[in-house]
Amino acid sequence: MVRRVNVASILCVAIALAAMLSAPALAGLYIPDITPVNVVDRGQFFTPDPVESTSSEIALEREINPADASADTANAGADQKTPDITVSVYDIVSGRTMILGLEEYIMGVAAGEMPVSFGAEALKAQAVAARSYALYKIAHDSENDEGHHGAQLCTDSAHCKAYVTREALAAKWGEEKADEIFTAVGAAVTATAGEIISYGGETALAVFHSCSDGATESAQAVWGRAVPYLTSVDTPEKTEPVVKTFKKEQIAEALAPDGVTIEDAAQPKLSYDDAGRVEAVDFGGVAVAGTRVRTALGLRSTDFSLVILDGEYIFTVRGYGHGVGMSQYGAAAMAAAGSDYAAILAHYYPGTALGKIPS
Ligand SMILES: [Zn+2]
Known about the structure:
Helix content: 25-40%
Number of domains: 2
Structural class: alpha+beta
Strand content: 15-25%
Bound molecules: zinc ion
Largest sheet: 3 strands, mixed
Number of helices: 13
Order of helices and strands: HHHEEHHEHHEEEHEHHEEEHEEEHHE
Distance between the termini: 35 Å
Strand order of the largest sheet: 2-1-3
Number of strands: 14
């Protein structure tokens, strides 16, 4: 039974904070141990931002700048009828490669990416996004990715997507909760079986993130390459800012690889992009990209402002994640307001077409 939750009352900050506390667990564990998720959904774990680590951002950069992408490889992973598609997934815990049905894989991913309380239509949008993302990766030679050991995908949430089995959920949260999750998520996956979003005939790179404040970000701003359907769009979720304070010495230390000295760090000047996020920070003539500042200082997003007070450098940060593509909290808010999954996907991936995997 899916609990009905007033999504507007769910502030992104709760989950984001939980993620920060658990950040070290994200890289290596089969199931990220993000305990405080029960704030929104008793028991179900949640990977607030599935593409949040530096490594995954590098991986994404590689994906949207494929050296050898060509039209005839674009749908290499999607050239079978839906029921017959299998994917190979390297399990980073057991070190073994699993062969899974595509829908079985998407089930395990969707269960790991979004609480059932986000609503049926948000879960459907999540399932389609995850399916599209997986097929995009497969179509772009993901079997050659480092750490995949020849498999098309892996279970590392910092690289591909977290994948969780019903058994693993039951072991962690109990049979009843596992049933609840798999019933709700299973319904969303089944209802959208074989559906993807595409652009210009190619499966879309349907990246997503936890939440944004007012507007999402463009792929151009984050990864340096424009993707027609990964542009900045407005997003309805509510967020609470999180404040993080540094001394200039700490900033200089974090940005030393970028050539920032303590003197440089004293008077940073922020410049903003069209989405209202920090494009770059000028440290005494040394310009550092906002994305790099975010990573170096461990900020939740590039949507930040800075005030210097009594030698304290006070960063106020909104949203969580790279900000590109679908906002999961935004999807939940849209679903709560009556939007169906097609409308959610069309909003966050403008210009894409929702349809079946080409056979
Ligand atoms: Zn991977």
